[in-house]
Design a protein that fits this description.
Helix content: 40-55%
CATH topology of the largest domain: Rossmann fold
Number of domains: 3
Shape: elongated
Number of helices: 16
Structural class: alpha/beta
Strand order of the largest sheet: 4-3-9-10
Largest sheet: 4 strands, parallel
Distance between the termini: 38 Å
Radius of gyration: 27 Å
CATH architecture of the largest domain: 3-Layer(aba) Sandwich
Length: 485
Amino acid sequence: MLKIYSTLTKKTEEFKPMKPGHVSIYVCGPTVYSYLHVGNFRGPVFFNFVRNWFEYLGYKVDYALNFTDVDDKIIDRATEEGKSAKEISEHYIKEYKKDFSDLGLRAHDHNPKVSEYMPQIIEFIGKLIENDKAYALNGDVNYAVDKFANYGQLSGRKLEDMQVGVRIEANDKKNHPLDFALWKSKKPNETLQGSSWPSPWGEGRPGWHIECSAMVHGLYGDQIDIHGGGLDLVFPHHENEIAQSEGCTGKHYVNYWMHWNLLNFGGSKMSKSLGNIINMRTFLEEHHPEIYKWMMLSSHYRSVGEFSDATIDLAVSGLARVYSALALADSFINDEAQEDAKYQVELDAAWEKIIEHINDDFSTPQAFAVMFDQIRKFNGQFKRGAKTNATLSGRAQQFKSFVMQFGKLLALFQMPAEKFLRALDQKLLTKAGIDEHDVESLVLARSLARQTKDYAKSDEIRAKLTQMNILVSDTPDGSFWEVNK
């Protein structure tokens, strides 16, 4: 039984889809005016796993992530570069999709763009005016928050409390200082192509919040199973979405609100003012994509994520531990493998524990712990260079299948193990400024010293390799080296 924590009810609830066997998911995507930073991908990585898990449970999933391609930041960037707003947004959508693909994530079923939903947005606003939930004033259209009795239900805020301390200023486009924009009239200096559209209230463009309401409605109708987004979107964006959608249709909008937490960078929230923004393109040039996915999935999605050199090192260490066990398993697997029924019972019990943890609001850290327990036991029974037989080969294959099954759901551990470890070593050597050929030469020299029983020289070379953070293991087939992770 899958249970999900809903931000709306503030409790973990059993998942019950609106349509048996089907799940509709909408996740707020990026505003596309620049390369996307590492914080923008926590949600896509997590919901890629959510979608995979629902499918593992037997559901048919319909999953949308939108692109906000109408926004002041896009217009500003286009003005700076002498381009149209569409040129800017389309360029950065393409760049986002490249990063998304490089992360090894599955394409969404839908990627709606605001610019493609302008008729639906205008129709939606018109319906809100008809329902007396919105009003047009001097070219703008605003939502009247005091006309929606449940305003604040998602964030837990009360309208009367939000008014305390609000400076009431004369505003010829709002009846109430907390009313929010549904349609914004064109400003005199906004002459850029693709920055405004005709409407019954004059030329202009939609407010931020109405865009998602219209796109969700266009894709899924009045109601949706799951709506996801970052915790920073709870208020005002998702609060306003509820007011708009329920104010338009009169129906409950979202059954499960899921919000992932933010990332801290060295103990500080990521922000442009602090100068600690790291875009995903730069990260992937320096690090393997599985490192980022590990960082996002090895902690619970509702906990604050930590992003630092230390957490990157922890991810490298964790991945190396998994892939080293898989490489060890590969060395034992052959065509004569015979399944060990007793061992399979143990693995099946471990898998049931993983299911139990994931079904408890996607508790990935606990599921990772179950996997590592099996890795520990496997490493205790198998040693590199030892001879194999049909039984050992069978157990190795069973272990590998267990890890790979979990990894496939996470979009992890799918590379050939030796290839991944070698690629990881090369990146670590490059980062440390060490030439791989120098390492190979030292390992060879040490092997020759051991063959001639010059153990003093062998120990001297091992010490030098240790200073270079290189570990050497001696097996019947020769010496094996790797970067210490």
